[in-house]
C-alpha cells in the first residue's frame, strides 16, 4: 500500500468531546470519523484491524465447534413479546415500523431471534449441544454515548448462543467459551482479567466479564493480591463483619447541631465511625427505599436493586423523605412507618450494638440504637460496596481496585428463553425438555479501542502485532535521492513478495512528517531507507513498541530477518 494513495486523513487537533486516548488517537490517525452521535464510520486502517480481530475470534470460536451464522438486524416485535422483553429496555431499544405498519426493533442482541431459529429445527437430544454465533452490528440507543467506540450506539458484536440438553452440558459450553475468550484476548495482545459479574437483568446465575485493565475503563473491579479472585465491584460478595459483643444501653436522643455527615456527627460525639450507621435514600417503582450501612462503608446500588426486586433506583428527592417523616442528613431506621418506606439494612449492621444514627429530625441523632430492639428492617442483606483493602472473600488477603474496559461477557441463561419461547427437545426417554442456553458476547470495536488504551504513548498508537493494520512501513527519507528511493521501492516489493503487509510512505514530505505519522498510526515496524543506507550497507529497522533500532546488513537476508522480528513481536 502507498501512503500517497491511502485514505487515512490524519488530524492535528481532535474535538474536545474526545476525552480518552483511544478516542483521540483513532480520530487523529484517520482510523474513524463520527457520522452522528454515537455512530462512527470505520475508515480503511480501522477496518483492517477489525477484520483481524474478527478472524482471531472466528478461529477460536470454530476451534470450539461453534458455527457462524448471520441473523437479520431487523427483529419482529412478536418474538420479543413472546420472551416478555419487548418493553424491558425502554428507549434504549430502537423501534421502527415497516411499510405495512409491522413493528420491529433494530437488534440490540439476538437471544429471541436465535431461539426462534433453533426451536423450529432442533427436536432431539441428538442434535445438542449446538453453538451458533454471528459477528454483526448491534443497535442500542445509549442515553449518553461517549468515549468513541467504547460506548457507541451502533457497534459490532460477536454474539454466540449455546444450546445444551442439561446444566452439565451448559457448564461444558460455558467452559469452552471462557477458554476461547482467554485465547482470543491473549492473541489480540491484551492484558485482561475475567471477573465474576452481576448477571443483571438478563437472569441466570453464572456470568463473567472479560475486563481489559485500563485507567479509562468505565467498569470498576476488585481483585485479590494473593489469589485468583476478581469481581466486578458491583457483584463482589462480602462476608458479615462480627462487631465485638457489648451490653445494649438505653437509647438516647442528642442534639447534633449542623452535623451534616456521619463523620461530623462521630467527631462531634467523639464516637468511632464504626459505631455509627449511615443512610442512603433511593426512590424506585416501589417507593422510597432507605438503606443503612456502617458509617465507614458504601452502599452498592446494584445489590439494593437485586434485594428489593426493582428494575432501577435513583437518589430520592427531599420531598419524598419529608413525606416518609425523615430528613436528609438525619435519617435513621427508628420509628418510621414501614408502609411509607422500605428499610434495607446491611447484614453487618445487624451485628452491631449501641449504634449512633439519625433521629429523623433536623439537628438530632440517636445514641445506643440496637437492631431488633429499636427497629426491624424490611430487608437484611449484603448491600455493601466492596472497598480497597477489604478481605478477599476467598482467601482473606486485602483486595485492590482497578478500572477495566469490559470487552467480553459470558452468561449462563439456563432455560430463561427456552421456557418463555417453548424451545424444547425430546430427551433419550422421549420426554419434552427445555434447552439449556448460554450466551457469549465480544465487543469487536471496543476490543480495538481497548488495545489502543493499553498500547499508546505520547507519539501515538502502538499496535499489537497480531491486530496491526499493516506490519511494516518503509520510509524513503530523501525524496530527492533517486538511488535510495529506488532501493526503498525494491525493499518494499521484496517484503510484499515475502507475504508481509507493507506500506511505503512515498509522499514528497520531509522525514520528520513521515516519522510523526508513522508513530501516530503505530505500525509495529519501520524500515528507514536513505543515502546513508547505501553508504553504510546497513538497513535501519525500528520497533515501535520498544523503540529498539536494529541495523540489518543490506547484503544479508534482511527480509528473513524482518519476518523473524515480526514473529517475535
Ligand atoms: C435490549 C437492549 C439492550 C440490552 C439488551 C437487550 C444488554 C440485553 C444483555 C445482553 C446479554 C448478552 C448476547 C451477547 C452477550 C450479551 N443490553 N443486554 O439483553 F433490548 Cl435495548 O445483551 N447477549
What characteristics describe this protein?
Rossmann fold; alpha+beta; five-stranded mixed beta sheet; binds ligand 9G3; 3 domains; YbaK protein; nine-stranded mixed beta sheet; BirA Bifunctional Protein, domain 2; 569 residues; 31 strands; 26% helix; 14 helices
- CATH fold topology of the largest domain: BirA Bifunctional Protein, domain 2
The residue-averaged pLDDT reads 95
CATH C-level class of the largest domain: Alpha Beta
The helix-and-strand class reads alpha+beta
Structural account:
The two termini are 22 Å apart. Strand 22 and strand 23 (432-434) form a beta hairpin. It is built from 14 helices and 31 strands. Helix 1 packs across helix 10 (444-454). The model is unreliable at 199-204 (pLDDT under 50). The protein has 569 residues and is an alpha+beta fold. The longest helix is centred in the first third of the chain and has 21 residues, at 167-187. The chain has 3 domains: 12-69 and 109-237 and 400-453, Bira Bifunctional Protein, Domain 2 (BirA Bifunctional Protein, domain 2), CATH 3.30.930.10; 252-381, YbaK/aminoacyl-tRNA synthetase-associated domain (YbaK protein, Alpha-Beta Complex), CATH 3.90.960; 470-568, 3-Layer(aba) Sandwich (Rossmann fold). It is globular and about 95 Å long. Strands 3, 7, 8, 9, 10, 11, 12, 21 and 24 form a 9-stranded mixed beta sheet that branches. The chain has a 5-stranded mixed beta sheet with strand order 16-14-15-17-20, covered by helices on one side. It has a 5-stranded mixed beta sheet with strand order 28-27-29-30-31, sandwiched between helices.
Amino acid at each position: 500500500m502507498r501512503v500517497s494513495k491511502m485514505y487515512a486523513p490524519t488530524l492535528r487537533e481532535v474535538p474536545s468531546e474526545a476525552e480518552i486516548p483511544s478516542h483521540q488517537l483513532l480520530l487523529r490517525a484517520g482510523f474513524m470519523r463520527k457520522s452522528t452521535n454515537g455512530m462512527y464510520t470505520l475508515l480503511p486502517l480501522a477496518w483492517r484491524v477489525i477484520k483481524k480481530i474478527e478472524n482471531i475470534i472466528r478461529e477460536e470460536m470454530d476451534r470450539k465447534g461453534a458455527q457462524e451464522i448471520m441473523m437479520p438486524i431487523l427483529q419482529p416485535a412478536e418474538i420479543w413479546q413472546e420472551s416478555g422483553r419487548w418493553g424491558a429496555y425502554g428507549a434504549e431499544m430502537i423501534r421502527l415500523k415497516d411499510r405495512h405498519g409491522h413493528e420491529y426493533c433494530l437488534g440490540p442482541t439476538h437471544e429471541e431471534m436465535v431461539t426462534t431459529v433453533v426451536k423450529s429445527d432442533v427436536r432431539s437430544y441428538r442434535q445438542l449441544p449446538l453453538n451458533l454465533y454471528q459477528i454483526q452490528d448491534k443497535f442500542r440507543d445509549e442515553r449518553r454515548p461517549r468515549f468513541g467506540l467504547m460506548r457507541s450506539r451502533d457497534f459490532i458484536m460477536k454474539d454466540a448462543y449455546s444450546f445444551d440438553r442439561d446444566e452439565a452440558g451448559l457448564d461444558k459450553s460455558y467452559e469452552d467459551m471462557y477458554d476461547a475468550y482467554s485465547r482470543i484476548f491473549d492473541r489480540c495482545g491484551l492484558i485482561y482479567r475475567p471477573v465474576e459479574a452481576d448477571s443483571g437483568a438478563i437472569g441466570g446465575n453464572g456470568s463473567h466479564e472479560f475486563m481489559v485493565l485500563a485507567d479509562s475503563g468505565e467498569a470498576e473491579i476488585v481483585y485479590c493480591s494473593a489469589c485468583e479472585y476478581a469481581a466486578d465491584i458491583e457483584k463482589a460478595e462480602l462476608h458479615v463483619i462480627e462487631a465485638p459483643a457489648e451490653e445494649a444501653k438505653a437509647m438516647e436522643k442528642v442534639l447534633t447541631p449542623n452535623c451534616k455527615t456521619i463523620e461530623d456527627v462521630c467527631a462531634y460525639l467523639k464516637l468511632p465511625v464504626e459505631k455509627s450507621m449511615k443512610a442512603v435514600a433511593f426512590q424506585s417503582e416501589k417507593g422510597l427505599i432507605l438503606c443503612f450501612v456502617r458509617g465507614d462503608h458504601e452502599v452498592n446500588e446494584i445489590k439494593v436493586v437485586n434485594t428489593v426486586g426493582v428494575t432501577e433506583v435513583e437518589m430520592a428527592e427531599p420531598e419524598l423523605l419529608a413525606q416518609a417523616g425523615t430528613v436528609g442528613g438525619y435519617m435513621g431506621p427508628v420509628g418510621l412507618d414501614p408502609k411509607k418506606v422500605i428499610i434495607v439494612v446491611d447484614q453487618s449492621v445487624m451485628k452491631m450494638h449501641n449504634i449512633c444514627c439519625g433521629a429523623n429530625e433536623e439537628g438530632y441523632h440517636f445514641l445506643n440504637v440496637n437492631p431488633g430492639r429499636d427497629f426491624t428492617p424490611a430487608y437484611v442483606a449484603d448491600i455493601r460496596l466492596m472497598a480497597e483493602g477489604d478481605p478477599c472473600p476467598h482467601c482473606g488477603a486485602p483486595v485492590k481496585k482497578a478500572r477495566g474496559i469490559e470487552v467480553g461477557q459470558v452468561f449462563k441463561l439456563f432455560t430463561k428463553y427456552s421456557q418463555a419461547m417453548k424451545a424444547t427437545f425430546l430427551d433419550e426417554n422421549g420426554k419434552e425438555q427445555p434447552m439449556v442456553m448460554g450466551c457469549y458476547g465480544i465487543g469487536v470495536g471496543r476490543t480495538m479501542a481497548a488495545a489502543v488504551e493499553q498500547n499508546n504513548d505520547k507519539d501515538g498508537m502502538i499496535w499489537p502485532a497480531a491486530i496491526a493494520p499493516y506490519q511494516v512501513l518503509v520510509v524513503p527519507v530523501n525524496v530527492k535521492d533517486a538511488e535510495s528511493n529506488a532501493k526503498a521501492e525494491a525493499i518494499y516489493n521484496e517484503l510484499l513478495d515475502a507475504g508481509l503487509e507493507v506500506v511505503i510512505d512515498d509522499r514528497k514530505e520531509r522525514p520528520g512528517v513521515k516519522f510523526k505519522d508513522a508513530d501516530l498510526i503505530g505500525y509495529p515496524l519501520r524500515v528507514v531507507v536513505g543515502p546513508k543506507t547505501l553508504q553504510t550497507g546497513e538497513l535501519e529497522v525500528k520497533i515501535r513498541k520498544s523503540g529498539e533500532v536494529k541495523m540489518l546488513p543490506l547484503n544479508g537476508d534482511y527480509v528473513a530477518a524482518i519476518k523473524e522480528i515480526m514473529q517475535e513481536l
